[in-house]
Structure formats: C-alpha cells, structure tokens
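Run log // design_07
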C-alpha cells in the first residue's frame, strides 16, 4: 500500500467523487417543501383548433371547427397532448377531450364555430393561470437547462433530472414522470381549490 499510494489514491478519487455527488443529489430537496398544487400542462404546439385558458378561475377549453376552402380538404383533428399532474405522485396523466364526432368533416353550418368542451376531471376545481405556482414552483424542461457542472454530468447519472420536465424552486427539483419524450409543454393552470 505504501509503495503504491499514488496509484491507490488515483483509483479511489473517482469513487469518492461519485459518493459525494450521490449524497449531494440525494439531499438536494430536503430543504425545500414538496409542491402542493396539482397542475395542468399542454403541448405548446397543439393544433390551432383547441384553446386552453383560465377564465374566472375556471378551466376554459374550446374547440373551433375548421374552415374548409372550396378546393380544400379538412385536416385530421387529433387529441392534443394535455396532462393533469398530481403532485403527490408527480405522474402526468393524459386527459382526453370530447372531440365532436363531425370534427374531421364539418358541415358548412358549423365551419368556423367555436364550442366549449367539458372535461369531468376539471369539474369542481379552480385554477390559477400564473406561470409560477402559489407556493413558488415553476416548470422547466431540464434537457435545455443543464447546470454546466462537468462533475455533476459525469457522476450524477439519471438523478440529474436531465431527461425531462421538473418543478423547480430554490435549488430543489421534482421530476415530472411520463413526459420524457415530450417537448414544448407549458402550464395551463395550477389547482388552487377543489370541491370534489
């Protein structure tokens, strides 16, 4: 050991660094209270036929029938990428919208009309439309927001949350599961009340 102390130290350093960053990552959220408000997110690139907004603390979702030109064909209307995230589990639950049966083949009478869509998941809930939650969290796509620390990149592994979206506050990060392959997601609203 004495004769090869330099070699032993060289071999031990990576293990020491790995242990250090593992412990640091494991404790990064201990000084931050977990998020308290469920929230709704949607693909920012969702089809123009749908509009998502908060009006008077209520979720307002509308669908506009496409206007078809004389020589044109209606485009295929598909479900938007809409999710409800329960902060107790941090799992993104896909929400289906009741798209009208004639959405892909609208008659002249309904073309251009806007209708409201009711979603049972949002019944009885009130929402805040701010980009930051009432308890100070904001959502970010961590794939484009790496911390630039080479040691963290090397040793932190998947715990660096660079695989998708997180809620972030004061250095704490809470990963949103189920959105790894989604890009361009945005907050629609935070749940601030629930009578259900």
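design_07 sequence
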């Amino acid at each position: 050991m004495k004769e090869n102390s330099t070699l032993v130290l060289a071999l031990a350093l990576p293990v020491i660094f790995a242990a250090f960053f593992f412990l640091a990552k494991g404790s990064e959220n201990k000084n931050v209270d977990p998020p308290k408000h469920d929230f709704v997110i949607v693909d920012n690139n969702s089809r123009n036929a749908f509009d998502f907004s908060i009006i008077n603390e209520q979720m307002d979702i509308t669908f506009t029938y496409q206007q078809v030109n004389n020589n044109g064909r209606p485009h295929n209307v598909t479900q938007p990428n809409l999710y409800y995230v329960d902060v107790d589990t941090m799992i993104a639950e896909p929400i289906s919208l009741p798209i009208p049966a004639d959405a892909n083949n609208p008659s002249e009478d309904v073309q251009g009309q806007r209708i409201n869509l009711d979603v049972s998941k949002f019944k009885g809930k009130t929402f805040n439309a701010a980009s930051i939650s009432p308890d100070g969290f904001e959502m970010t796509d961590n794939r484009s927001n790496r911390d630039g620390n080479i040691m963290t990149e090397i040793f932190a592994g998947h715990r660096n949350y660079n695989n998708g979206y997180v809620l972030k506050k004061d250095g704490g990060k809470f990963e949103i599961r189920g959105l790894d392959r989604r890009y361009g997601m945005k907050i629609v609203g935070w749940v601030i009340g629930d009578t259900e």
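The chain has one domain: 29-194.
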